[in-house]
Amino acid sequence: MIRISSRRMCRLILSIVSFLMFGVHAAQASETNIRVTDLAERTVILSHPAKRIILGESRYLFALSILNPDHPLDNIVGMLADLQSIDPGTYQQYQQRFPEIDDIPRVGHTSADSFSVEKVLSLNADLAIFGVEGHGPGARNAQLIDQLERAGVTVLFIDFRNDPLVNTVKSMRLLGHVLGQNTRADAFVEYYQAQLDRVVKPLAIAMAKHPQHSPAVFLHSRVGLQDLCCETMARGMMAAFLDNVGGQNIAKERVPGSAGILNLEYLLTEQPDIYIATAIGAAQNLEADAANQPPYIVLGAGVSRSDAQASFQRAIKESALGSLTAVRNGHAYAIWHHFYNTPLNIAAVQVFAKWLYPQTFADLDPHATLETLYQRFQPVPLNGTYWVELDTKAGRS
Questions:
Q1: CB 136 within 8 A of CB 80
Q2: Among candidate residues 149, 169, 188, the one where a domain is terminated
Q3: Is 199 a domain residue?
Q4: If you ran DSSP here, which 8-state letter would residue 281 be given?
Q5: Got the DSSP string for 26-88?
Q6: Quick check: is 198 in a domain?
Q7: So which residues are the signal peptide here (predicted)?
Q8: How many domains does the chain have?
Q9: Within a domain: residue 4?
Q10: Per residue in 87-121, pLDDT tens?
Q11: Is residue 49 domain-shared with residue 123, that is, in the same domain?
């Protein structure tokens, strides 16, 4: 018979208890891990909601603000500079409400090539939020992703660009999980889906009862950015909005990728029923020397309807697109380009529906939808013009 002293027995018991407690804590830690599959189909695991975040595109502030509208910048330790340079109107709104936005370190400019891994690692980030594709690092930047994850920075991919009407909901739910804001994410998703149904369901009913001609649409992207006529979107981005409302995108059969060029001769031959331009100009462009400014269409934060209309008139005049039948017949419209990269895109979908099928959607009010999105889910007020119809009478005066 083996005898064990009381002292050794106590040590043994303590060891066993410690071992068991370690196992319990390990199991609890495992159970509390946040585990999701991102939109690059990668398994992403966090031990706790992210507290130090890198934004691969600072335009994702729209999404983060939905989850934390009172303090959207609190956990952001670094971001690309795209919002300030590409959408200065919105940046100025944030700057006025949250002056500390200027103090957030920039980890790059407006491209993946400018993204600084070294800068990110110096900021002790625990999560980097990237788009599957876009201005910042994407899913194809395997080496960069590997560098970050080896250094302990978890990478999460979201998407408002490639398949926006499917992936906006998925992206917001992912962000809700990793940031510990599921309730806010669910509230947004509920509103978003209800507003999408206001397009999808009436359109399906109308098509079933009275099959109608799908309008041929030319989607003119980033008007004024280059002299060459005319950049367009064929797949994803705003082309996906067009697909969702049953529009016939005339670029789809001519452009093999997501974006490309259709020349003016082709447009004059095909003569789309509807012309939609995307506007990359901002209020700040109006403050500069107009004579030296490209013919941007100006829309977005801080832009009046009259200024938007004047910029649209100028862009049409300088591009020679006034000869399009759609323009002459009063079926020419412009919309804020950056809808394609934010979860506020549902307002743009409703606008497209109303432009293509005005009778079916006579009672739909996209402006009210956008107002609600800002009132419920954004930290800054809706203040500006985000779409406009070309005033053909003004053009002939």
A1: yes
A2: 188
A3: no
A4: B
A5: HHHHHHH-EEEE-TTS-EEEESS--SSEEESSGGGHHHHHHH-SSSTTTTEEEEESHHHHH-H
A6: no
A7: 1-29
A8: 2
A9: no
A10: 999 999 999 999 999 999 999 998 888 999 999 99
A11: yes
